[in-house]
Specification:
Elements lengths: L2 H13 L17 H8 L62 E3 L6 E3 L6
Antiparallel strand pairs: 1-2
Organism: Graphocephala atropunctata
Pfam families: ARF7EP_C
Protein name: ARF7 effector protein C-terminal domain-containing protein
Length: about 120
């Protein structure tokens, strides 16, 4: 045998599993530090915002077909909506919309119209 053969045998001996190399034998992934950190991490409860209008553009809580100008007697004062063709949709279609206008300012006046249908 040459020195190179002895060197190869010593490397193989180092790679052989022995009692010291059985570190994974007692490993339990469910009790690992990583899993414990994941369990202890604060989970933010992101609540899904509920829809305010149904699929026909009707306000869900009141059952009314409210124009976005917030006047319950209005027959529609906006241009026809590109999506649903309603004259009661403002800048965005009311079908399945998840928000409602809070208020609007009438240009050229000091008048601010607040939404009486919002839950405060």
């Amino acid at each position: 045998m040459s020195k190179n053969d002895d060197f190869g045998i010593s490397i193989i001996k180092e790679l052989r599993p022995d009692d010291e190399m059985k570190f994974m034998e007692n490993f339990d992934p469910e009790k690992s530090k990583r899993e414990q950190r994941k369990l202890n991490r604060k989970i933010s409860n992101v609540t899904k915002r509920s829809t305010v209008y149904d699929d026909k553009g009707i306000h869900i809580k009141t059952g009314l077909d409210i124009c976005d100008c917030m006047n319950d007697r209005c027959e529609g004062c906006f241009f026809a909506c590109a999506k649903c063709r309603s004259f009661k949709c403002g800048q965005e279609c009311r079908q399945n919309r998840r928000w409602m206008y809070e208020s609007y300012h009438v240009q050229g006046t000091d008048e601010v119209v607040s939404n009486c249908y919002l839950d405060h």
